[in-house]
User: What shape does this take?
Amino acid sequence: MSTDIHDTVKPDTAGIRLDVARHTELFAAIGCDSPAKIAAETGVTERTVRRARQGVIGEVFMAQTVAALQRHEKTLTAAGLKPPTLDELFTVVVPPAAA
Assistant: This one.
């Protein structure tokens, strides 16, 4: 059985990172001001939201997050925001090459 879900993410590990500040801003604009409310809106668990904010991100979280924000396009537009694309909310981080 794989235990990789329990591994901690090291800062020098390549992976996908969530723009936590933007994520928080967008979800607050649609009335989701806690991990529990974000989880309910996106259809993932609260634990998944917390882990994503810590750097452990899966494709379901990414897709559900962008889809949830797209459903609230009118609300976001009224707040002067727009639903993000994957590239605007998530970043691929590559560790520096060893010297």
